[in-house]
Write a structure and sequence with these properties.
Blueprint: E1 2-15, E2 18-31, E3 35-39, H1 46-53, E4 61-66, E5 69-70, H2 76-86, E6 87-90, H3 102-112, H4 117-130, H5 146-157, E7 164-168, H6 176-193, E8 196-201, H7 204-207, E9 212-217, E10 220-223
Parallel strand pairs: 3-8, 3-9, 6-7, 7-8
Antiparallel strand pairs: 1-2, 1-4, 4-5, 9-10
Helix pairs in contact: 3-4, 3-5, 4-5, 5-6
């Protein structure tokens, strides 16, 4: 089954009388469990595409479906609910809450979802162990390296057992060794959990981890846009 379906999606940005077509008639299916890279030069539409898939924005035309649900018909509150329960995010700058420990950052989406305390604890500790940070559970972000912060962010993205995880340039602020470790962890957790991962990058080393590569140029898919399995 497809985790994501985009049907003839177009996204325009308008500043005064100037109109920019960020995405042009995009159709793309991504199956459950895929590990997909969105690649292309700056301005090709990668981040805009992730924002639409992540229900952070709406297209001007076309439909975006998550697990068969047409989210373009959802209200802002419905999209927020879907993000909270079904979509995980990994950001370039980690986006951890600075006053919370690693444990508390991973626990936060479970608190927002009303998960019971015993289940929260089991899941948070399991995820911190999965990313190799069980011994850093009570450290705040400023007590962690950049690589460790990104591993906390990966754990947090998987806390709610989402349908998919979206990552925008997840290794851009990491050195080579930490970037490789982050990608290896995401690849392993993708296989273990069956969660679909879609990440945007222009780094050839990061692209090499993908089992599917979708190439964008000037807001259009130029390669790899075949239907998901």
């Amino acid at each position: 089954m497809d985790a994501i379906q985009l049907d003839h999606v177009t996204k325009l940005y308008r500043v005064g009388v100037t109109e920019t077509r960020a995405l042009n008639d995009i159709s793309l299916n991504i199956a459950e469990g895929e590990f997909t890279a969105l690649v292309g030069p700056s301005g090709s539409g990668k981040t805009t595409l992730l924002q639409l898939i992540g229900c952070l924005d709406k297209p001007d035309t076309g439909a975006v479906k998550i697990k068969g649900q047409d989210v373009t018909r959802f209200s802002a509150n419905q999209r927020a609910d879907l993000r909270r329960t079904s979509i995980g995010f990994v950001f370039q700058f980690f986006a951890l809450v600075p006053v919370l420990t690693a444990y508390e950052n991973v626990e936060l989406p479970l608190l927002l979802n009303g998960t019971k305390p015993a289940e929260r604890r089991e899941r948070v500790l399991g995820l911190l162990q999965a990313v190799g940070l069980e011994d850093r559970a009570h450290h705040r972000p400023d007590q962690l390296s950049g690589g460790q912060q990104q591993r906390v962010a990966i754990a947090r993205a998987l806390a709610t057992r989402p349908v998919l995880v979206l990552a925008d340039e997840p290794t851009a602020n990491l050195d080579t060794a930490n970037g490789q470790q982050a990608m290896e962890i995401m690849e392993r957790l993708n296989k273990e959990t069956g969660t679909a991962f879609v990440y945007a990058t222009h780094d050839p080393r990061v692209i090499s981890y993908a089992r599917r590569v979708v190439k964008l140029q000037d807001g259009s898919i130029v390669d790899g846009g075949l239907e998901g399995a």
